[in-house]
Amino acid sequence: MAYIYNNWAATTDGHAPMDILVDLPFLFLAVAAVAPQMLRPQLEEVKQKQALALFIENVSPIFYTVALLTLSISLMHEHFYAGTVGIFTALVVYATRSTTLQGRYIRVQRELHEARDRLEQTALTDALTNTANRRRFDDALTLEWNRAIRNRHPLALLLIDIDYFKMLNDRYGHPAGDRCLVSVALALQSALPRSSDLLARYGGEEFAAILPSTDEAGARLVALTMQDAIRELKIRNETSTGLHVTVSVGIAVFESAHAGTAEIIEAADQALYRAKQRGRNRIEATSQHEFLRNGTQ
């Protein structure tokens, strides 16, 4: 194509516009490379170069495709096959470039979505225990409560409190307290029977577990499994409940639309309060019927 263009330029007088068309980008690049250094501060220069790079990357393939098409079409009456090859080459190059840009765009979009998902996961996870945080718990409880009402299934909520955790912190220090929280979280998570169950750090040394489609008997079984898992950790903490860390569990099971998420949390909190008042290291439960009959305590 270079040979044909040179031959055409040497034997015709109409090549000046084509020369301008081909040389114009290089003139533009030369001016753009020098002008920012004289007219812009350093930060602005960087921004200009970035904009220039994007412009060149996206526009220059189109520009040269048009130039090659124009040259090839103008040569077809004297060099038909060469002109045809030029047109075909221009179209292939443009299609290849478009496919490459599209693939790059899809890859960038995927990376952005993955980064956003990681950011959302971080925003919904407790940094110490790697369980769900309070924000995720609130969202999940609302979602599961609405689903339970829609499907007419019971929903169980467990509030789990580490007994005498402040005593452990005071006696062994906050690093030991943090290690205790991490170990307890892992043990509680291992006690959940289904992937749809959610464990969250509710606050301080208190955890919460949401058990969809679970009645009181099923919730008590999970709570007993949790206590066994904590007992097997054998984390030292001499208290009235024994030599090692224990937990108290309050259970609330609701299954009708005559209440909401605030009420099920309050009912579980009342049950946890009773468990702590009655000696700790025990399980207490409040049904929706009992909660509505007795009211708040």
Automatic annotation (TrEMBL):
<feature type="domain" description="GGDEF">
    <location>
        <begin position="153"/>
        <end position="288"/>
    </location>
</feature>
<dbReference type="InterPro" id="IPR029787">
    <property type="entry name" value="Nucleotide_cyclase"/>
</dbReference>
<feature type="transmembrane region" description="Helical">
    <location>
        <begin position="51"/>
        <end position="73"/>
    </location>
</feature>
<dbReference type="GO" id="GO:0043709">
    <property type="term" value="P:cell adhesion involved in single-species biofilm formation"/>
</dbReference>
<dbReference type="InterPro" id="IPR050469">
    <property type="entry name" value="Diguanylate_Cyclase"/>
</dbReference>
<feature type="transmembrane region" description="Helical">
    <location>
        <begin position="20"/>
        <end position="39"/>
    </location>
</feature>
<keyword id="KW-0812">Transmembrane</keyword>
<dbReference type="Pfam" id="PF00990">
    <property type="entry name" value="GGDEF"/>
</dbReference>
<dbReference type="GO" id="GO:0052621">
    <property type="term" value="F:diguanylate cyclase activity"/>
</dbReference>
<protein>
    <submittedName>
        <fullName>Putative GGDEF domain protein</fullName>
    </submittedName>
</protein>
<feature type="transmembrane region" description="Helical">
    <location>
        <begin position="79"/>
        <end position="97"/>
    </location>
</feature>
<dbReference type="InterPro" id="IPR000160">
    <property type="entry name" value="GGDEF_dom"/>
</dbReference>
<keyword id="KW-0472">Membrane</keyword>
<dbReference type="GO" id="GO:1902201">
    <property type="term" value="P:negative regulation of bacterial-type flagellum-dependent cell motility"/>
</dbReference>
<dbReference type="InterPro" id="IPR043128">
    <property type="entry name" value="Rev_trsase/Diguanyl_cyclase"/>
</dbReference>
<keyword id="KW-1133">Transmembrane helix</keyword>
<dbReference type="GO" id="GO:0005886">
    <property type="term" value="C:plasma membrane"/>
</dbReference>
